[in-house]
């Protein structure tokens, strides 16, 4: 026969599990709302945001570390057309002009930008093509 004293540890465990679930749900929803990206509707805003993020990307310590290790002699500029789509991802990266001739580096730079997810979104069915100059020092 079960007594009340035998049920107390079980009740404590249930309350602890419930509290943990409640905390997880609260934390997850707070984190998700903090992660929402702003929707940009004007081309000038998109151009500014893309320029800022691409510049930061090519000045990041991760990029510079790999560039200095594998492509230390590469210096110059690349003019590229970047097409950004609704979810903040790139749909294309096209080199328009460059004084950098190292094809492996250009492919590496394109891969970095193509994998980047921008900190903004665009309205549904919206796409912008941005011309960007990337300076490599």
Supply the key terms.
137 residues, alpha+beta, TolA/TonB C-terminal domain, two-stranded parallel sheet, 24% strand, elongated
> Mean pLDDT, as a whole number?
84
Radius of gyration: 24 Å
Number of domains: 2
**Low-confidence parts:** 29-34
- Fraction in helix: 40-55%
Order of helices and strands: HEHHEEHEE
Question: CATH top level of the largest domain?
Answer: Alpha Beta
* CATH T-level fold name of the largest domain: TolA/TonB C-terminal domain
Name given to the CATH architecture of the largest domain: 2-Layer Sandwich
Shape: elongated
What does this structure look like?
The chain has 137 residues and is of the alpha+beta class. The chain has 2 domains: 1-36; 38-136, TolA/TonB C-terminal domain, CATH 3.30.2420. The protein is built from 4 helices and 5 strands; from the N terminus they run αβααββαββ. It has helices at 4-34, 43-59, 61-70, 103-115; strands spanning 38-39, 76-85, 90-98, 120-121, 127-136. It has a 3-stranded antiparallel sheet, with helices on one face. The longest helix is centred in the first third of the chain and has 31 residues, at 4-34. It starts with a helix and ends with a strand. The model is unreliable at 29-34 (pLDDT under 50).
Topology:
Blueprint lengths: L3 H31 L3 E2 L3 H17 L1 H10 L5 E10 L4 E9 L4 H13 L4 E2 L5 E10 L1
Parallel strand pairs: 1-4
Antiparallel strand pairs: 2-3, 2-5
Describe this structure in a few short sentences.
Helices cover 52% and strands 24% of the residues. By secondary structure, it is an alpha+beta fold. It has 2 domains: 1-36; 38-136, TolA/TonB C-terminal domain (2-Layer Sandwich), CATH 3.30.2420.
